[in-house]
Design a protein that fits this description.
Growth Hormone, Chain: A; 5-stranded antiparallel beta sheet; 5 strands
């Protein structure tokens, strides 16, 4: 009688790599669509900022209630997902080499789809830790597995065009937000339910206690939120301004999570079963490997470095810094892209920088991110990987420094020119951000060889996990400091009696009112003296300077990358694993 282990092995053996070796004459161009499909699904993580506004209003729905989650709380969900993406990729890199891309892809489908379902339970029960566990931890592991599964496979299918191959493999991840943003907006709109409306601000008597707003209904105090024009503009559906009862209505976020989880699971399963790997010693028809001289000139090795030996080389850590700081500079901005657009330009150019405009901005980030992955990775086949990263860091530094200039200029002169400048700068930044991801696998194959490139790439993605913390922490911490300073500065300029009339409490209770989200920059500007400049557009200036500094450090790290010493090659460290045996 077979053991349970043998039975289990036979049941799932169809997932393993020895069962998916392509037959002679197999068309290698059938593999990229499966890779792109999986990356389109997991790439929707880049549209996370679409979920920020509804999650911040899950109780108040029309506007944030005192018990609602803050931006700094929900933006960390995105960070946790990226952290576990990196950790899962690092741990699964060697496993991928052992079991093949189909097994890893199927596992990714269960984790990513299941993560959405668990996250939806967190929204329904208003338990933030469940969203972190589902979307962040479990879903993040699905991201990591789904991310690495096609990369090494396509590099082996396209040895003649490594950059283009990795660009194809990772292009979908950058474009995932383009489709994901539309799906999220659609489901949020379909499932949205307006909260109970009590009337306009002037028609309802409000009570303020400990920063919260209440209304007396039939002798019972009921918590409410005051939804102004700015709050309404951020909603998926138009509702009138006024007073709404907390705990009624539905943002639609929970049901959107469930719908997305099911869709992504189905698509990823179909794609995973489409994977094939080339037979040993397979080469593209008519392809002649480059000469030794040409390879050395472009820093492309003809040897291989074992996965455990790679982490002993300085090249691994130089490239780790290159990827980490390039990602850190972009990932924090992506996580709050929609919010940043509204905060910088919503008050100065309200007729243009609407919620719909900001949502489309997120989509365009996805478009340029996706195009940048294919463009820059393909370009690296011609100008070299090292020169490609030099372009990222020199041009990127200048562009990040241009953003504070545009933000400050629009405060003094609300002209659409500054919005165009900001838009163009960020779009170019996002092409290079995506291009950095797409080019790094080919860079690794050039430096360490192709034998264990999948595993080495997985371990290098711990840089992404680190960046998933550095970027959002930097942008939220620096933003919070700038926001606090701006509110304190504005409150010192307003008339105390006007403040008390506006918020139902004296200036001495400012900290409580800010914590309860009753006092905001926008509401303070309504009672600020004439001629007061809105400080909102400048709250990200310090962050942009910090991101530019990271790119400068990454530039010098890339400058130090040299060919790996021959003592680390497989034939010198693991002769039994030398290629060709």
């Amino acid at each position: 009688m077979a053991t349970s282990e043998t039975t289990s092995s036979s049941i799932f053996s169809f997932l393993l790599k020895d069962k998916i070796i392509a037959s002679p004459g197999f068309n290698r161009w059938r593999v990229p669509p499966a890779s792109v499909a999986i990356h389109l699904c997991i790439g929707s993580v880049y549209a996370w900022s679409i979920f920020n506004p509804p999650l911040m209003k899950e109780l108040g729905v029309a506007a944030s209630a005192a018990g609602d989650w803050s931006l700094s709380s929900v933006v960390w969900i995105f960070s946790v997902a990226i952290v576990f993406l990196g950790l899962a990729a690092a741990l699964a890199g060697k496993w991928l080499e052992d079991v093949g891309p189909r097994c890893v892809g199927v596992t990714a489908a269960f984790l990513w789809g299941g993560g959405f379902i668990i996250g939806s339970l967190g929204i329904i029960t208003h338990q933030l830790w469940l969203i972190y566990l589902g979307y962040g931890v479990i879903g993040g592991c699905g991201l990591g597995l789904g991310y690495v599964s096609p990369v090494a496979t396509l590099i082996r299918w396209f040895p003649d065009r490594r950059g283009m191959a990795t660009g194809m493999a990772i292009m979908g991840f950058g474009g995932g937000a383009m489709i994901g943003a539309q799906l999220k907006k659609y489901f949020l709109k379909v499932y949205f339910e307006a909260p109970e409306y009590l009337g306009s601000i002037d028609s309802v008597n409000l009570i303020t206690e400990e920063g919260k707003r209440f209304v007396n209904i039939a002798g019972e105090k009921v918590e409410v939120v005051v939804a102004g024009a700015t709050d309404i503009a951020k909603l998926a559906v138009e509702i009138p301004e006024g007073i709404y009862v907390v705990g009624t209505g539905n943002t639609g976020a929970a049901l959107a999570f469930i719908s997305l989880g099911v869709i992504y699971f189905v698509v990823m399963m179909i794609a995973a079963f489409s994977y094939r790997i080339p037979a040993k010693d397979w080469k593209p028809k008519g392809w002649i490997p480059p000469s030794v001289e040409d390879s050395e000139k472009r820093m492309i090795t003809g040897n291989s470095v074992h996965i455990n030996e790679a982490i002993k080389t300085p090249q691994f850590y130089f490239l780790w810094i290159v990827l980490c700081f390039n990602v850190s500079a972009g990932i924090g901005v992506i996580g709050v892209a929609k919010t940043m657009m509204i905060e910088i330009f919503g008050s100065t150019l309200p007729s243009i920088a609407t919620a719909a405009f900001a949502a489309n901005y997120v989509i365009m980030i996805s478009v340029f991110n996706m195009c940048g992955r294919f463009f820059w990775a393909s370009m690296s086949d011609y100008i070299g990987r090292k020169n490609t990263y030099h372009c990222f860091f020199i041009l990127g530094t200048l562009l990040y420094l241009s953003i504070p200039f545009a933000a400050s200029a629009v405060s003094a002169n609300p002209a659409v020119t500054w919005l165009i400048m900001f838009y163009a700068a960020t779009m170019i930044i996002f092409t290079m951000y995506g291009g950095g991801f797409a080019t790094i696998p080919a860079y690794l194959a050039d430096i360490f060889g192709t034998m264990h490139v999948g595993g080495i790439h997985g371990r290098l993605l711990t840089a992404w996990a680190t960046a998933g913390v550095i970027g959002p922490v930097a942008i939220t911490y620096l933003r919070r400091g700038s926001l606090s300073n701006a509110i304190n500065d504005l409150s010192s300029k307003v008339d105390p009696s006007a403040f008390e009339a506006k918020f139902g409490a004296p200036l001495s209770q400012l900290s409580d009112l800010v914590a309860a989200k009753t006092v905001t920059i926008g509401r303070l500007m309504e009672i600020a003296p004439a001629g007061t400049i809105d400080p909102t557009p400048s709250i990200y200036n310090t962050t942009m300077y910090a991101m530019a500094a990271l790119l400068v450090i990454a530039f010098f790290s890339n400058l130090l990358v040299k060919p790996v010493d021959s003592k680390h090659h497989v034939k010198n460290t693991h002769p039994e694993l030398s290629e060709g045996q």
